[in-house]
Amino acid sequence: MRQREEFAQEAVEEEMDMAKEEDMIEIKIPADGIKKAGLENLPGVGASTAEKFREAGYHDLMSLAVASPGELVESVGLSEAVARKIINSARNNLDMGFQTGDDLLKKRERVIKLSTGSECFDTLMGGGFETGSITECYGEFGSGKTQIGHLLAVTAQKQDPTAVTVYIDTENTFRPERIKQLAEAAGLDPEKTLSNIRVGRAYNSDHQMLLAEKVEDLIQKQNLNVKLIVVDSLTAHFRAEFIGRGTLADRQQKLNKHMHTLLKLADSCNLCVYVTNQVMAKPDTFFGDPTQAIGGHIVGHASTFRIYLRKGKKGSRVAKLVDSPHLQEGECNFFVETGGLRDVK
Length: 345
Ligand code: GTP
Ligand code: MG
Prior knowledge:
It is built from 14 helices and 13 strands.
């Protein structure tokens, strides 16, 4: 019988190979600015085809422009040639919507920063977790990723009593009791706080993607003031479902679509997206920390802020800001406590 270590080693080698393979695949995250033209305007697309597209989750030109012909063949039942033609005309019809610098500055002024309750963590993040962006925390088990998700759901409401959180839970780790504790510590009504959190339990990666796509309905049809989306964990289902060499391109394509849905929501609805991610061991590291986030470049590039969480001394946690568009890299130490986060003095 083979040893467990041998299997573990093989799994690590496989991820490494996949990571190398990924360097050769280039999937671009599209720029902002989506023209809300009807799908019916595309040549050869009538009302019924447009409806099929919508049912399959393609609501606008951008989603078609970034789709692959294979995806359309599978989900809508078109021939490959027609799929290609439609994708091309969607690309041609797309207004990339360049914005002026001062428009963007005005947009930046609308950004809300969700506090973590820890002074040093907030400082590290330039005031808190920003709306309009995706913030990713990756780290080993027990490093505090889920706790931060719960905490943000509470602080969002402390800052704005009408704020709604959508919590996409893939590992069944959302705990209403924990929300109650944190809400009480923050001086909020626990029942009301819980009623402003919508939890979607995702059973597989498709379900997870669908839940993210449905957030737009909550905002537009139910008029909810969604200010935070938590996806905990972003990558676990994808990692479990796409095993082995040769599945990487499909996995990354789907992850890319998922990240794009989240990014679009963050940007168009000025809400904060918080995602958690696992790490894997990198056996060929000789210096520094031998861990690496799952999900490769797709997750790395789509996340606006990346934070690496690890366990520190005496039960504390260390958060390291690894990537950010305008903040300095840095670290901070805190404890996870019943009432929230507390700085290490
Ligand atoms: P995985 O999902 O397994 O990868 O881990 P994670 O990074 O999501 O870890 P999580 O956020 O679940 O952190 C768990 C840690 O938070 C525990 O080991 C505890 O130290 C701490 N913690 C969780 N709840 C409480 C609490 O109510 N009080 C205190 N003091 N600590 C807590
Ligand atoms: Mg967790």
